[in-house]
Amino acid sequence: MRALLSVSDKSGIVKFAKELIDLGYEIISTGGTWRTLKDAGLEVTEISEITDFPECFEGRVKTLNPYVHGGILYRRDKIDHLQEAKRLGIEPIDIVCVNLYPFKETINKTDDFEEIIENIDIGGPTMVRSAAKNFESVIIVTDPKDYDKVVDALKNRKNSLEFRRDLMIKAFEHTAAYDSMIANYMNERFNKGFGNRQFIVGEKVFDTRYGENPHQKGALYQFEDFFSKYFKPLKGEASFNNLTDINGAAKIAAAFGKEPAVCIVKHGNPCGFAIKETLKESYTEALKCDPVSAFGGVVAINGTLDKELAEEINKIFIEVVIAARVEPDALKVFENKKRIKIFEQGTDYLTLANDKYDFKHIEGGFVYQNADKVTDEEIKNAKQVSKRAATEQEMKDLEIAYKVAALTKSNCVVYVKNSAMVAVGMGMTSRVDAAKCALKKAEEVGLDVSGSAMASEAFFPFRDSIDAAAKAGVKAVIEPGGSIRDEEVIEAADEHGIALYFTGVRHFLH
Questions:
Q1: Is it the case that residue 384 has pLDDT exceeding 80?
Q2: pLDDT in tens, 344-383
Q3: Cα–Cα distance between 152 and 175 in angstroms, integer?
């Protein structure tokens, strides 16, 4: 029995090789792996002894040889394959353990194209695919986490067809993800990220109980290792819908750096937001915006959930809390609440993955784009187009309203007063309806919007929204501008004494 070991990630490889030797396997290896095993005092055969040919072209060609691939690929259940292998002097290779050149690590550390090219693995993926193709006879191992599982299977007669099949699927996933990464990198470098093919690759984190509805299947997949690092369940299990709501809430709360921001989301849209002196004050003020919608909602806390804040949240039914950190005493507050789900990131403030690209499924395919970002400079450099300038507090309110609007479904209008959202209208077919809907909701819950700042994620096409804002007592407005009727909008703002700012950047969210 022979095992071929050739790995870039050498964690656990010495122990794995020792276990295989104890089970009677001859170890064949290449380059750095051979040296690692040799230095550990193991008996190991260098690949050139098998191929009867030296590594050449600075290591570009090592394993591309019939004595390697023939030994992996020939079928043990076919008499003509067995006879041909004997005639050609090809001996079987029963285990292939390969993980690939560190392409991702290379592109993360350097822009040197020559070094990047040399870290594209050729022989490795070929061996992986060969072994995976012949999984009925060969064990293919691509993940160091599987070493113990393989040894256990060999020791305890668990080396079944189903076991090898699962490793085969994982192997093809491994090479597919690797090739996708290379193709996407090359398109990023030479085609601005938009090549003829786009590959979206994620690693499963966990299955959800179901999708958006009970008849749908669902799961969470991650890019890189974001959720493995920054999503720690403390109580309960996240559903498909929880995850989309958590995403919306966390993006808004995290948009303000280290400020004590709290965002409440229901069905993907914010129904409360505030930044006050403390997180408890922020939550209390955020809840005032729409306490009815907040019932059963998701709360994102840009900081630490302590006992005092937990007791405040526990006064109503909140389904999910996501915080940067959760103190043990805070967690105890919810011990008797069976339905609440609590997660932390293990950071000081909420962290975002900041994905470079965004995509949406449409029937028959998907649309793909650069991810939208709202920068602080958009607000700082916004152009004052009205006669009246905003006060310092109004500018802070404009910043909050603008960032929340940019992360809320269009058409959207957001009203903020004293650093707390007091009204929001979203997902409407007209912008004036969004403004009116927000004001009606504020009136229903008894919130006074007079003196507030208002933001829209796209330009106001007519002055009617400004007129409605003035009637409600709005003192400052921020919007992208760019309408053919901008002058009418500016004129309306000046008539009503409203400070008006144009950012020049639209933030549709459909």
A1: yes
A2: 999 999 999 999 999 999 999 999 999 999 989 999 999 9
A3: 25
Q: Does domain 2-190 have CATH number 3.40.50.720?
A: no
| Residue 361 appears among annotated catalytic residues | no
* pLDDT per position as a tens digit, 4-43: 999 999 999 999 999 999 999 999 998 889 999 999 999 9
Active site residue 267: yes
Give the fold, CATH level 3, of 235-344: Cytidine Deaminase; domain 2 (3.40.140)
Peptide bond into 411 cis (omega under 30): yes
- In the block, tokens 């009246």 appear at 388
Which one of 10, 81, 133, 288 is the catalytic residue? 133
Domains of the chain, by residue range, sit at 2-190, 235-344, 375-502
Helix (H) or strand (E) holding 445: none
Confirm whether 235-344 and 375-502 share one CATH topology: yes
Instruction: Find the catalytic residue in 267, 288, 307, 337.
Output: 267
CATH topology for 375-502 is Cytidine Deaminase; domain 2 (3.40.140)
